[in-house]
Amino acid sequence: MSLPAPSARAFVPFVSVANMMALIHHVGLEQMLGELADYIEADFRRWPQFDKTPRVASHSTEGVIELMPTSDGEHYAFKYVNGHPKNTAEGLQTVTAFGLFSDVATGYPMLLSEMTVLTAMRTAATSAMVARHLAPRDARVMAMIGNGAQSEFQCLAFKAICGVDTVRMFDIDPQATAKAMKNLQGHGLTLIACDSAQDACEGAQIITTCTADKQLATILTDNMVGAGQHINAIGGDCPGKTELHPDILLRSDIFVEFPPQTRVEGEIQQLPADHPVTELWQVILGDKPGRTSDRQITLFDSVGFAVEDFSALRYVRDKLEATDLFDRLDLLADPDDPRDLFGMLARATPD
Ligand code: NAD
Questions:
Q1: 309 assigned to active site
Q2: Which of 5, 62, 293, 346 has the most C-beta neighbours closer than 10 Å?
């Protein structure tokens, strides 16, 4: 089955969760993480071409529902995503998502896709791509704090893209750590279960925090972070939801995706609005310095930005060519005469 030509879009390719998983196994999980990182980095390199806006967030006491749109002028994409930390207690995901990729010239959708699994892949690929620019070059040991849905993806992205070979794991729920360690068996990582976040940070050159709690939490305190470490802070991604003690932020050089969004949602919501941060796309282009010394603490204050989802959908759309890993979705009305929408409806009247 081939994708529809731009002139004949009678159906929209739809990638279900089952087909996304099949695509990942078809490409190979670590291979796909690496390829996604390259797509995301390529789009960061052309950052000024994108329409950028902080995501549109609808907050409730339980969580948040967000729309994340962007366009490079040729294509447009948006993701619908939620964040509900209490969901896991009810057997539901904290984060679920789907997304759309479309053609700017016609406005027609070119791809509708599940993005729950894809978000875990793109978040991990982004983290590791950023660490490729900021973490110590010889980093081999990572602390993984928060061993929930995102965690295995993070570990494998850092292995595939940065050469991490050892992960020190901690979660307040030992069952989460046991789950992640079981899932990661056979993937070539040395895994160490730790008793506390502090224990996990011992000897790690990279610290990933990926916890979910709708509060100003303190997953890392200042004494846990030493000179030269790179922090990949994933879980603080909403107003009132952070993971790091502010003292850590004051000792770190902070790198962000899109400042207007991160100032509201990231760890830096705890700092004055004029606290200096560096935009990652400028580091990737070589216009601004990244890591400049062995003793510097670098912090990726990750919140997840629309361009990363655009890149992920662009990648999936390219990869779908020459596969049958999609369904044909009857999403677009397609009357023979574009002005005869009513006639199409009338002719569809049951006998
Ligand atoms: P999850 O609910 O599946 O896992 C979170 C884990 O954190 C759980 O196992 C929980 O026990 C653990 N935890 C909670 N408090 C802790 C603490 N104090 N110390 C150690 N562990 C603790 O959630 P998930 O899907 O893995 O997402 C994790 C976080 O990442 C969420 O906050 C989510 O919003 C965020 N996220 C960010 C991005 C991004 O681009 N930055 C993308 C996806 C998800």
A1: no
A2: 62
Strand partners, 144: 169, 208
Residue among 234, 238, 262 whose CB has most ligand 1 atoms within 8 A, to mutate: 234
Task: Give pLDDT tens digits for 76-129.
Answer: 999 999 999 999 999 999 999 999 999 999 999 999 999 999 999 999 999 999
DSSP letters for 6-70: TT--SSEEEE-HHHHHHHHHHH-HHHHHHHHHHHHHHHHHTGGGSB----EEEE-SS-EEEEEEE
**Domain boundaries in the chain?**
6-117+307-347, 126-304
- In the chain, how many H helices and how many E strands? 11, 17
Top-level class of domain 6-117+307-347: alpha beta
CB of 35 closer than 6 A to ligand 1? no
pTM (two decimals): 0.96
